[in-house]
Write a structure and sequence with these properties.
The complex is a heterodimer of chains A (272) and B (368). By secondary structure, chain A is mainly α. Chain A is 59% helix and 1% strand. The chains are: A mainly alpha (272), B alpha+beta (368). β1 of chain A pairs antiparallel with β8 of chain B.
């Protein structure tokens, strides 16, 4: 390791950045943080394994999926590969759960009993009405009636929440910035949509982040920012909604998802 | 190859400032609003569009406990810690974080204003343990040796360095496991009933996840049936713009040097999963667009109103307020209309697909 980086402290004086900022030293927080960033970068470079290629090349294969499944230049897209990759991604995300704090034996036992008694049966009951036949609007509705009408009626972002959070979400959105951020992140944590929402609240370096999770995170952060404009908030929620809804994402490039002429005339008529 | 009319992504004053700040390099290209050349495609066939969804995993004890602890955390009493005050295990914290290895930013390791708990994570041993005793307002460097079973194989055993800024923290006092407040939130009279309630909620969520998985699989098929040769440059442009909207923006805000930003973008461009997802996204969107045109699908005012009602509810606003914001910014209005049309197209496809849920007996014709 270079001498210049060998003795860099792992910490800066407590509150230095915030304190400087309070007295009006513009950019001081960033300046403090960037020096720590640079130290981290230099130390990690000094400790690089000479037998390993660069990080970006090293993690290019990403998760534990074969290279022919994760796309490489010129690879042929198949539905099978997309499914294999999605399964690998879900499995990887579960590794980033926080360990549960100590719970009493009583709570552990109660959880064990609850898990044992629930509800593969109930689950299948919910799916049964929609199984093995064309998913028409009516059939889709039948499935949803069994399980998620409330979810569907309460907004797209909240499809990623657990039921407990839904009832309070609107009230919370009107609270202070930190409370809003906390609530928004929690709603992602309490995901009804599996790994997608939970990924928004998990930190998984080196593991590809689902677009929907990124957009949920941005929306949460924008809603929490008291200085964000109405337009910025509306934009972030529309983007997140586009990412989450119907389990697909609209590409970023030129919004190619829509027929341009249909949308252009519509926008002119409705919002012009 | 058809060229789309010029369109802009929604912009804000913050975005304009960012653009002005970075005139060249990775972020400038990533924030570009230039239109791109798109291949034209034939609408994919929806004949015999059929998928099978495997059964969901059963609810586990760990999942019930995790949800229970989350709920306790939500109901905890909180005291904001002062600047300079030390963190303790179990605190809630708001962090900015970047991970580095081999002198470069680890892809997907940049987060801003991340709200989390100071609690150990098996995949990141020592990262959160080391935060105990650090102070609000500090920026610290924490070395972490990633474990042998780390999900990204190439990072296994690597010593990563994490730059962490502690922006805020809250000391939490969790409610007792059988406190009336906690049981009330669970809608139950006892711990056992509360756990049952959580287990039912998890089962309901699994059903919802099955429905989403069915949609994913149908759209996978649509992507495969969309006959198009996607230029690598288009896939990379899509990834670059996504990076600019997310990680690139955060790096620029923090003043990370342009060269390091470029390296971070490279990590995204070389990530196989990111490429696969971008290709899937483009194929689905191009296929749906062709379907909209072939089938003459129209965007009805009611579709847009329903969508805006949902958006308004998320924002705690009235729909009229949202519409006013859209009138003031046509790019955002356009994004809203495009999203509503996209959803309409997905619905159209789903109405024509057959879904089999594995392990579930077939319904009788006409049932439901």
């Amino acid at each position: 390791m270079p001498a210049a980086v060998a003795n860099i402290s792992t910490r800066t004086p407590a509150g230095l950045g915030v304190a400087l900022n309070r007295v009006g030293v513009a950019g001081s927080v960033g300046a403090t943080a960037i020096s720590v960033y640079e130290a981290a970068r230099d130390i990690s470079a000094a400790r690089a394994n000479p037998n390993q290629s660069t990080v970006s090349q090293a993690v290019a294969s990403g998760l534990s999926v074969p290279r022919n499944v994760a796309a490489t230049a010129g690879a042929v897209f198949t539905a099978h590969n997309a499914r294999v990759y999605r399964d690998a991604h879900r499995a990887a995300q579960s590794a980033f759960r926080a360990a549960a704090p100590q719970a009493s034996q009583r709570a552990m036992s109660a959880a064990a009993r609850a898990a044992a008694s629930t509800s593969v049966d109930a689950l299948q009951q919910g799916l049964r009405t929609g199984a093995s036949r064309p998913i028409s609007r009516a059939a889709t509705r039948a499935v949803e009636t069994a399980v998620d009408t409330a979810v569907r009626n309460q907004g797209v972002l909240r499809q990623t929440m657990g039921t407990t959070a839904r009832n309070t979400a609107r009230a919370v959105l009107r609270n202070t910035a930190d409370d809003v951020a906390r609530a928004a992140t929690r709603t992602a944590v309490r995901s009804g949509a599996g790994a997608m929402g939970r990924a928004a609240a998990r930190f998984a370096p080196g593991v590809n982040v689902a677009v929907a999770a990124m957009d949920v995170g941005i929306a949460a952060s924008t809603l929490a920012n008291p200085e964000a404009s109405t337009t910025a908030k509306v934009t972030s929620v529309i983007t997140a909604a586009g990412s989450i809804a119907a389990a697909t994402n609209i590409p970023v490039v030129s919004q190619v998802g829509a027929a341009v002429s249909v949308v252009s005339s519509f926008v002119g008529g409705l919002f012009g | 190859m058809a060229r789309s009319p010029r369109s802009s992504t929604p912009s804000s004053s913050e975005e304009v400032l960012l653009r002005n700040k970075v005139q060249q390099g990775a972020l400038a290209r990533a924030l570009s609003t230039e239109s791109v050349a798109l291949p034209s495609v034939e609408a994919p066939s929806l004949e015999q569009l059929e998928v099978t969804v495997p059964p969901p995993s059963p609810v586990t004890q760990d999942a019930v406990m995790e949800r229970f602890q989350e709920l306790r955390g939500e109901l905890a009493e909180r005291r904001g810690r002062e600047v300079g005050e030390a963190l303790a295990a179990g605190d809630e914290v708001r962090l900015d974080i970047i991970g580095l290895a081999d002198g470069r930013i680890i892809p997907f390791s940049v987060r801003d204003d991340w709200l989390t708990e100071v609690a150990p994570r098996p995949a990141l041993p020592g990262l959160f343990e080391e935060l105990v005793g650090k102070r609000v307002g500090e920026a610290v460097r924490i070395p972490v040796v990633l474990p042998a079973d780390y999900p990204a194989p190439a990072l296994r055993g690597v010593e990563a360095q994490f730059m962490v800024e502690v922006k805020a923290a809250w000391e939490r006092t969790l409610p007792e496991e059988e406190s009336p407040r906690l049981l009330e939130a669970l809608g139950s009279g006892s711990l056992e009933e509360g756990m049952e309630s959580i287990a039912r909620e998890l089962a309901e969520e699994s059903v919802e996840a099955q429905r989403l998985e069915a949609t994913q699989r149908v759209l996978d098929e649509v992507a495969e049936r969309t006959r198009v040769e996607l230029p690598e440059a288009l896939v990379e442009d899509e990834i670059r713009r996504l990076w600019g909207r997310t990680e690139g923006r955060l790096l620029a805000r923090r003043g990370v040097p342009a060269g390091d930003q470029e390296g971070a973008l490279q990590g995204w461009l070389e990530d196989g999963g990111q490429r696969l997802e971008a290709a899937r996204r483009l194929r689905i969107a191009l296929g749906l667009k062709a379907l909209v045109e072939r089938e003459g699908l129209k965007l009805e005012e009611a579709d847009v109103h329903r969508f805006l009602d949902e958006v308004a509810e998320e924002l705690g606003m009235e729909r009229g307020e949202v519409e006013q914001a859209l009138k003031e910014n046509r790019a955002v209005a356009r994004a809203a209309a495009e999203t509503a049309l996209h959803l309409r197209a997905v619905e159209y496809v789903m109405e024509r697909a057959r879904i089999h849920f594995e392990g579930v007996p077939a319904a009788e014709p006409g049932e439901g």
